[in-house]
Amino acid sequence: MPSGNKCIVVTGYGPFRGHKVNASWVAVQELKSLGFDDEQVELYVYEIPVSYDAVKRTIPDLWEKHKPDLMVHVGVSAIVSELTLEQQAHNDGYDRDDVDGQIPHTKMCVDGSCHNIIASDLNMSLVCEDINSIQEMKVKAVVSHDPGRYLCDFIYYLSLHINKGRTAFIHVPPLNAPYNAFELAQGLRAAIKSMLNHLPLH
């Protein structure tokens, strides 16, 4: 891991629709408890409401407050069964109600952005290989290019728009389908360690 203190901000989402307990926030809390072997890693975790307005208010403030070396957003998806590393996010198509019954007025994340898709500078294929090479860990990882045009896609695009060199998004499956919270946290920790090693040099 590169030398010097590394500040990492990890967010998980709160309850929504069929997810009265959101596996993403449970896994992020477990990650906080698990911690990092490296004392030079400063980890901050936040639960974000499944709300477009809350994301738009909160995420720029977290970037400004912490100036993180790495911002990792975590969300749950009922259609994934592995740790799913998202490579890119979309600016438009946000027409599904959030927990407040709201959608963005323009159905866009960042009005006026000239990029409909922004990809992270972090190579998720390399991160995926690193995770899957850890034989003693139960969790396996895959790479995806479609975070789903809901709050997960939305939060990812917003952070990529702020700093695409230091932003990542990870989808986790629901709890015990097949991984428990501790196993998911182990996977998140492995992913973050890999991402720190692959951070672009700028």
From TrEMBL:
Protein origin, superkingdom: Eukaryota
A Pfam family matched in the record: Peptidase_C15
Keyword RNA-binding set for record: no
Entry GO MF terms: pyroglutamyl-peptidase activity
One GO cellular component term noted in the UniProt record for this chain: cytosol
GO terms of biological process kind: proteolysis
Keywords: Cytoplasm, Hydrolase, Protease, Thiol protease
Record-linked InterPro entries: Peptidase_C15 (IPR000816), Peptidase_C15-like (IPR016125), Peptidase_C15-like_sf (IPR036440)
Stated family: Belongs to the peptidase C15 family.
Protein name (record): Pyrrolidone-carboxylate peptidase
Organism encoding this protein: Plakobranchus ocellatus
